[in-house]
User: Fold this.
Amino acid sequence: MDFESSAKTRDLLERLGAFMDAHVYPNERLYHEQVAADRWGHPPILEELKAKARAAGLWNLFLPESEHGAGLSNAEYAPLCEVMGRVHFSSQVFNCSAPDTGNIETLIRYGSEAQKDRWLQPLLDGEIRSAFAMTEPDVASSDATNIVATIRRDGGDYVLNGRKWWISGIGDEACQVMIFLGLSDPDAPKHQRHSMILVPRDAPGVTILRPLTVFGYDDAPHGHMEILFENVRVPAENMLLGEGRGFEIAQGRLGPGRIHHCMRLIGLAERCLELMCRRVKTRVAFGRPIAEQSVTLERIAESRILIDQARLLTLKAAWMMDTVGNKVARAEIAMIKVAAPNMACRVIDWAIQAHGAAGVSDDFVLANYYAHARKLRFADGPDEVHRNQIGRLELAKYA
Ligand SMILES: Cc1cc2nc3c(=O)[nH]c(=O)nc-3n(C[C@H](O)[C@H](O)[C@H](O)COP(=O)(O)OP(=O)(O)OC[C@H]3O[C@@H](n4cnc5c(N)ncnc54)[C@H](O)[C@@H]3O)c2cc1C
Assistant:
């Protein structure tokens, strides 16, 4: 494996780091103050930072090998994504945030020219945001073939009905479009029953019922919403790729965006380890700095080992996606999807412990980051499902 960064990546990494130091970290508090003042609005500081990032050429850095991106491979993007992961909202600053990244990839790959004009360009320009509406309260949604919300053809339109929940991003007023996964033909073969269709946020019949919370965090203004779709009528042209092709899109959608969360989790864990180290050097308990307690040293060492292991596995998965494709890399992708959130949970938990009561407060990022890392053990596909796949692939070697 060649992990040598290209000159281009090194330059981007340097500029991204300088941008974070000059503009993102100093405005972290302001961002949260603006969100607190208008929870479901759109914090003005974000738009200021986006304009600066775009002017600095730090924009749409994902999208490997695409004319719309910076032309980076997955392995080249990984260290940049890691830096963004250190501050929860910062991937938005560079127009590299989920779920827009996956939705942009979907539109590039499967959108019609009209769909691209209407939705892709404003997304690439960071003028609007988007959501992905799959999960439903009434069925085990880790198996997407269970989805029961319906998409029915009616003349020149499709009519959508159903209840979705945990739809991220729709809390932000900038979020103008959703990709909706629904059942379009219950009698078709299992993987041809579902379709994906574009739904404008303001389509009549779309009702946002409530924001859900993750260990008490509503993640405003992004949010995770429960949404009712009642006879929502959208033009037939909004269908992506074609009726019954939802799983074909889902397969393609499981592209580069699949491991962005893992890349960001490395940066998030690094920041928590840094906080832990700074804290234990300055706090004295029972006559000695906490840093000098052997259990603390052991946890710091173990955190360093876990983070570096996860980073290498992330890079290996990214490198394989670049060189042999997502299909051949599926074991590595599944492995890092298990390893990264588990690693981050472990490291953050130790950092919280080292902070004492301060660690579970919102005076530090730790509690919020723990909530984020913990939910990624199932939100991006449950650990168990990834492990089943890894196990089966391993066993297949001995057929
Ligand atoms: C903060 C957050 C944001 C989210 N954002 C979105 C979003 O934007 N759009 C969207 O559509 N969804 C979103 N989700 C939902 C997420 O995708 C689902 O939670 C996930 O797919 C799991 O589905 P489920 O919750 O229905 O769990 P279930 O499918 O009911 O699974 C529950 C548990 O069953 C076990 N399990 C399942 N399958 C197996 C198996 N094969 N072997 C062993 N055990 C198994 C696992 O322990 C799993 O955690 C989000 C969730 C969260 C928490």
